[in-house]
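With this grant's support, we have settled on a layout for protein records. An illustrative entry appears below exactly as we store it:
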Amino acid sequence: MTVIPGPTPEAIEQFNQGLMRFWHPVCLVADLPLDAPLGVELLGRALVVVRLTGGLACFDDLCRHFGAALSIGEVVDGNLRCRYHGWTYDRSGRVVDIPARRDLPIPHEACVEIHPVEERYGLVWVCLAAEPATEIPVYPEFADAKFHRTPYRIYKPWNASATRIVMAALDDTHFPWVHPGTLGDPARPEPPDHKCSVEKDHVLTTYSIQQPANITVGSTGWGTGVEMVTYTNRAYQTVIHLHKKAPGGVFVLYQAMQPISHNRARIFLQVARDYDLNPAQDDRYLEFEDGIQEQDRPVVESQRPWLLPPLSSRLMLYVRPADLPLITYQKWMEGLGIPQL
């Protein structure tokens, strides 16, 4: 039996350090309480997200006093109070009240590390670096009145890295084998003519391909037969924006991954469409995506090694032209210093 070793601690640290410079989703805006903290995890780090005086805040989930979790504390007068001894933090992460010594100055070291946090596209995003390297991955259809959006679907965490999930979404040549009858046809395994480029903050791929007609046929029901569709996909570090133009309209998938750790990730997924605008139809689009995700999950979770060898090693046998989007993505990520765990 061949034993494939897991990544070294050094490789895991490199993965975490590489991704910490970018924005990642940690929860839905709708799931963040108005007057209570929420504990989340990002790249192996426990965090607390909370609404305080002045706006949204994100801290390390660790009281500076005795290390209790701030996420089990409470919001009092617009600040976050630790449940253990009442140490209270403002939005800057500084302690503003120590009940046991209110007649003495608060020590200068009484503070916790804060992290950039923003609400956008219905998600709460966090960056673990003081200065994010890029903007939050764009989702233009979110504010476009021509598009109707489903609610977000949140999937149980996968035992896989967030970057592996991005690569699976970017890889169209698995469609005939993993998604026969929905996205591909084993009788038509030939790869499309990919156009790939590295843009300012993402990898852009475009191609046209024949697919089974299904979710882009309008309000009269699912399609039959095959149709020619054109994909324009933007792959970020842990987010992919898929734009599919078909005869019936434009279908967009915004899929953002929360890298909980190097080998565990949670998916936030939303569908936007400029046809079949009745909200009552949302369930069928989400159920379609549920099926696609469940077909992908066991395959992605099975992939080894966790750490993809450098492209130059040729230990992973990419083939052109079929794998051009993955080659482009991995080369781009290697240039950013982020190994593909």
User: Anything to note?
Assistant: Residues 159 and 252 are 26 Å apart (CA to CA).
